[in-house]
Amino acid sequence: MRRTAVLSRAKDINRVYWLILLPALLMLVVLYFVPLGNVLMTSVTDPKPGLGNYGLLFTSAAVQKTLITTVRIAAITTAFALLLGYAVAYAMRAATSQRQRVMLFCVLLPFWISVLVRSFAWLTILGPQGPLNAALMGLGLTDEPLALSRNETGVLIAMVHVMLPYAILTLYANMRGIDAGLVSAARSLGASRFQAFRMVFLPATRPGLIGAGSLVFILSLGFYVTPAILGGGRVLMVAQYTALQINETMRWGLGTMLAATLMIAVLGTLWALSRVIDVKRLFGT
Amino acid sequence: MKTLHPSGIVIALAWLVLSFLALPAFAVIPVSFTDTRYLALPEEHWSLQHWRAFLSNQDWIDSIGQSLWIAVVSTVLSVVAGTLCAIGCWRLSSRLSEKVRTLMVLPMAVPTIVYALGIYRLYVELDLVGTALGVILAHAVTGLPFVVLTVSASLSNLDPRLEQAARGLGASVRQTLRYVIVPNILPGVLSGAIFAFIHSWDELIVVLFIGGRALFTLPRRMWDGINDNLDPVIAVVATAMILFTLLVLTAELSLRAKRAP
């Protein structure tokens, strides 16, 4: 008797906790998943039902050029973010805790400043009259301003800047979990400093590299603001191309198809990644 | 105990990258004091002319006000709904509630442009384009992941038996939340609030689509400024936003110190 009473009470409590979980879930479904579903639906119904819009992925030269540009920029950004980020995360892992704090602040500061503000900052710095060109000409390294913005170089510089903190924080979280004693053990067994790094430390950071690389790559695919500002209209990535279809030509079918493709690519990569490593730890702190 | 020895080259590279990271924040500040009419460092002397132009321009001031109240209201919505949701998931910790928590984080991964198209279409049907309510709701939903993540992180340090003890002593669910759970996770809730606020305050792409002709939040006005006439006033706005962010970041870091002593 008493046991069933306790059980039914526990059930009631569970119901209460499901109830408090509901408002957020409802918001998410109505205001997030319904719109995403709408995008998917529109991509196969506008202007006429079928996969005609998706056919453009294989037939339209403009679409293909945009996709290739997007993947190329995302790949280059990922390579730089991983390489440079690895050096920072590694130095951070080895530094004293006081120095670590300074380094972490340098990483978090840009992380917190909006992408719009940072893109504008880069446009200023890299511009023909900007501080960088002024310094280069002042030092006599160049006679005329270098074309560092309104082209792919500018986009890449700013995108690497935006993505580096993601790479650093992910790699660092992974490196923190590695027992440094393993490296000293390898050293005491006669490995050189470089051998100990290459054969012990580097392999242990593989999950971090995979995680950081995928994270940076998928985030880079969807970039809109940075290429729009630093590309000066010459570097069209898929997000900006999508916005153009809607704002300029009102081609909803093509626009939603590109958006859907982007979403599927991103979520597909995440799903594949989740089979290899614990994705939640990537997003968690 | 120091057992890792990166070579000097690696350390030098690391600091070079770190200064590259910090550079833009500091490079924009002097540009906002330029005495020229274009984006450059001050040539002859530092000047306040562009700061004056910014402060005397009603459009910019209105945009700040609009951004501020949209961010505040959407943050309140995200924090209330997100905190309750995180607590529910934590307490239930069933396979189903885990799925809910995973869903909650999804808006962080889906590219914003995809969502912007979808919400625009929904708002056309609901007649919410160009309304503050529309932007607030969109920002509240996309702010949820930040709150759910920070609050869940706080909850993971909380002993579930505390909740059971409170219930065993006769506290109602409401009392348990009010006196036991929420006070213990307050730093996480505040961190989540800061993230959600910054998320709305900085958000551009969704506003570009659903802002209509009436809503010009600060990021949107800045975006228009960059695309129309690129002048040093925008450097002033950028500087102001960087200083504001610095302030908030300091607050968050001190909260984080409290959260994990």
Explain this structure:
Chain A is mainly α. Chain A has helices spanning 2-45, 52-59, 61-94, 97-112, 115-126, 131-138, 152-176, 180-188, 193-204, 206-221, 225-230, 238-247, 252-276, 279-283. Chain B is mostly helical and 261 residues long. Chain B is 77% helix and 0% strand. Chain B contains eleven helices and no strands. Classes of the chains: A mainly alpha (285), B mainly alpha (261). At the A-B interface, helix 1, helix 3, helix 4, helix 5 and helix 7 of A face helix 1, helix 3, helix 4, helix 5 and helix 6 of B.
Descriptive labels:
heterodimer; A: about 280 residues; mainly alpha; MetI-like fold; 2 domains; about 80% helix; B: about 260 residues; 11 helices; globular
Question: In summary, what is this structure?
Answer:
The complex is a heterodimer of chains A (285) and B (261). Chain A is mostly helical and 285 residues long.
In the CATH scheme, the class of chain B would be Mainly Alpha
| Biggest sheet record of chain B | none
**Average pLDDT of chain B:** 91
Q: How many domain modules of chain B?
A: 1
Biggest interface and residues each:
A-B, 89 and 101 residues
Helix content of chain B: over 70%
* H/E topology pattern of chain B: HHHHHHHHHHH
Class of the largest domain in chain A, according to the CATH hierarchy? Mainly Alpha
Class by SSE composition of chain A: mainly alpha
Q: What is the fourth-level CATH superfamily of the largest domain in chain A?
A: MetI-like
Number of strands of chain B: 0
Tally of discrete structural domains of chain A: 2
> Number of helical segments of chain B?
11
Proportion of strand residues of chain A: under 5%
Please state the CA-atom Rg of chain B, rounded to the nearest Å. 22 Å
Query: Quick one: how many beta strands of chain A?
Result: 0
Order of helices and strands of chain A: HHHHHHHHHHHHHH
CATH topology of chain B: MetI-like fold
